[in-house]
Amino acid sequence: MNETPLETIPAGYGRAVRLRAGEAIEIVNVTGTQVIDTWAFVEGEGGEYMSLPHTRVETGRMVPRPGESFLTNLRKEILRMEEDTSSGIHDTIMAACDAARYQRLGCAGYHRNCAANMNEALAELGLPARECPQPLNLFMNIPVHPDRSLEQGAPVGHPGEYVRLRALCDCVVAMSACPQDITPINGADRTPQDGHYRIPSAG
User: Fold this and answer.
1) Is 4 a residue whose pLDDT tops 90?
2) Averaged pLDDT, 68-95
3) In the chain, how many domains are there?
4) What pTM did the predictor assign?
5) Residue pLDDT, tens place only, 9-63
6) Containing structural domain, residue 99
7) Is residue 1 part of a domain?
8) Which terminus of the chain has fewer CB atoms gathered within 10 Å of its CB, N or C?
9) Is 203 part of a structural domain of the chain?
10) In this structure, is residue 16 part of a structural domain?
11) Each residue of 121-175: pLDDT tens digit?
12) Is 46 a member of any domain?
């Protein structure tokens, strides 16, 4: 892994970065337990974004393998899964948590959430709010059982695992260090941790 210093996504908050075509981002699971909701949007005024349903149709898999690409809602390649040092356990079917999700889980008052984190992160780059697409939930463990029921499982990662995504067009990548503290998706102690990423230098 490139040793460019890590940037921090504070626990329960979001960050966004611009990538030029050919640049990469490494999203690092420093603790081994923290889910990072991840989105990508084509740079510009249009509404083109990384679409997990379109990607599943193209790859025939729940999650692309290294060498395979993520597609947009217009079926264009936006990011390539270049390297994945984890077991490959990531989720592409669970919607981002939002304020209504926490209300349904019994929270009183506002709870930080990934959908709002995405828009807060975009706003920091001067970009407008938008409807939250299905995220790529990196390091999130959602087992599918034989009866097709879904489990919100505890993470199965190890500290220091990372995913490297290569931009195939100019795009914005938004990330949220998921604030979920009710279900065990961020670990058995249900304590969200900081997320981390780096933009590797060329070469």
Assistant:
1) no
2) 97
3) 1
4) 0.95
5) 999 999 999 999 999 999 999 999 999 999 999 998 789 999 999 999 999 999 9
6) 7-198
7) no
8) C
9) no
10) yes
11) 999 999 999 999 999 999 999 999 999 999 999 999 999 999 999 999 999 999 9
12) yes
On whether the CB atoms of residues 17 and 121 are closer than 8 A, the answer is no
Contact by Cβ (8 Å): 175, 38: yes
What's the rounded Cα separation, in Å, for the pair 85 and 79? 17
Q: Cα dihedral sign for 177, 183, 188, 190?
A: positive
Indicate the SS3 state at residue 54.
helix
Residue type, 123: A
Do 134 and 52 meet the contact criterion of CB atoms below 8 Å apart?
Answer: yes
The position carrying tokens 């984190």 is 117
CA distance 109 to 201: 43
- Residue 18 backbone dihedrals phi, psi, to 5 degrees: -95, 135
Residue 140 to residue 45: CA distance in whole angstroms: 31
